[in-house]
Design a protein that fits this description.
With about 130 residues, the protein is an alpha+beta fold. The protein has one domain (about 5-125). About 45% of the residues lie in helices and about 10% in strands. The chain is built from 4 helices and 3 strands. This is GrdX protein. InterPro entries: GrdX-like.
């Protein structure tokens, strides 16, 4: 799989900065849950999930950032992808992110954690 076979949906400016020149990045300045909803909408258009929407042990209320890999191309709606993303949205709705609990510098850490999870997913999918 090459970089033309997938895209990354993200709200993480670090991911955009590191991959914008070499990968198809869809960056939106939206919430974690809105990233999941954007991915869901694209899955319903025929894209397939390539990374788990709740990857890592970071809960939706612990970070504002999320990056998810989906197929570049469209096909039949993948029921497994639909189920995963719907379950992720339901799980996300159980949490409330409390941004006022964190110092501004912590957001850089959140971005780095999300980047590391994405980088790991990309490496394991042999997409580098």
């Amino acid at each position: 799989m090459g970089s033309r076979d997938y895209m990354v949906i993200t709200n993480n400016p670090l991911v955009l900065d590191r991959l914008k020149e070499t990968h198809h990045i869809v960056y939106r300045d939206i919430s974690y849950e809105e990233v999941l909803r954007e991915v869901r909408d694209r899955i319903h258009e025929g894209h397939t999930l390539l990374s788990h929407p709740l990857s890592g042990s970071v809960k939706p209320n612990e970070t504002p950032y999320k990056s998810i890999m989906i197929s570049e191309g469209k096909g039949e709606v993948d029921e497994g992808s639909v189920k995963l993303i719907e379950n992720a949205i339901q799980a996300c709705q159980k949490f409330i992110f409390k941004s006022d609990l964190y110092e501004e510098s912590v957001y850089d850490d959140f971005q780095l954690i999300d980047w590391t999870l994405l980088e790991s997913g990309m490496a394991s999918a042999d997409v580098w």
